């Protein structure tokens, strides 16, 4: 009986209209192209302002079945407050490198740190 009461309480506490609150999002465009070398490009756009574009280039390794993929792309979305955001990025052996007007930028290197790095290169 206690388990039944807990299940009823959990069902009653759950938001009943969750799926009714979510607007339907339509796909306006979609594309995907690839070749036999592993290169690709894709993108899509939705009617809620979300947009994605990406190009991937396969970089063969020195041995068979090795290598990496270099990516360049962007995505856009609208915040719940209605503000439009865009992030451009590259991704590859250097890691994921995003940029956007709303993203913080790393500060310049302190001159004292740079001087210390030149004075004691074995520590770096």
UniProtKB/TrEMBL annotation:
Entry annotated with the keyword DNA repair: no
A cellular component annotation (GO) from this entry: chitin-based extracellular matrix
Name of the protein: Pupal cuticle protein Edg-78E
Source species of the chain: Amphibalanus amphitrite
Single GO MF descriptor: structural constituent of chitin-based larval cuticle
Entry keyword set: Cuticle
Domain of life: Eukaryota
Presence of the UniProt keyword Glycosyltransferase in the record: no
PROSITE patterns assigned: CHIT_BIND_RR_2
């Amino acid at each position: 009986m206690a388990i039944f009461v807990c299940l009823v309480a959990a069902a009653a506490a759950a938001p009943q209209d969750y799926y009714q609150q979510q607007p339907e999002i339509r796909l306006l465009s979609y594309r995907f192209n690839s070749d036999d070398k592993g290169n690709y490009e894709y993108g899509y756009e939705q009617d809620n302002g979300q947009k994605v574009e990406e190009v991937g280039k396969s970089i063969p390794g020195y041995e068979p079945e090795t290598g990496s993929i270099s990516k360049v792309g962007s995505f856009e979305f609208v915040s719940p407050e209605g503000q439009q955001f865009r992030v451009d990025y590259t991704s590859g052996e250097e890691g994921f490198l995003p940029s956007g007007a709303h993203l913080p930028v790393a500060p310049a290197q302190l001159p004292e740190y740079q001087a210390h790095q030149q004075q004691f290169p074995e520590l770096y």
